# Entry
Amino acid sequence: MNFADYHALLSLYADYTSVVDNGDWDRWPEFFTDDCVYRVQPRENHERGLPLATLSLESKGMLKDRIYGIRETLFHDPYYQRHIVGTPLIRAADDDRIVAEANYAVLRTKPDQMTEVFNVGRYLDTVVRTPEGLRFASRVCVFDSEMIPNSLIYPI
# Structure
């Protein structure tokens, strides 16, 4: 993998983090291919090969439905989230595809409370080249705890 490709991957991760931290929900699905997979799964299920996930979306259309739900149908206490994402480790790369993983921590702040650690785990990503640049074909967020507080509203 050359430096330009690695820089493009770092930019993809940084831009993604900025969009989800700032709640720019219209832009979130654009980080993915049309036939993408986005899954948030507990570590225990992932390691055992069990398919049950806290959230499982299997197309860009499903991601857009999730955004509609965030805006129009889900009722929850408002909160902010802030991601801290480690440097991606490249597991495999060729001319068309990059397989990478990175650790993440998501902090959550409700306006009237102290900041808390909301979710910690690792991203398992398959990134592909498209005419628009690098996009996630698959993003599996494997979280370490068997529990998450309340419900999962915003993307990880």
The domain at 3-143 is CATH 3.10.450.50 (Nuclear Transport Factor 2; Chain: A,). The mean pLDDT is 94.
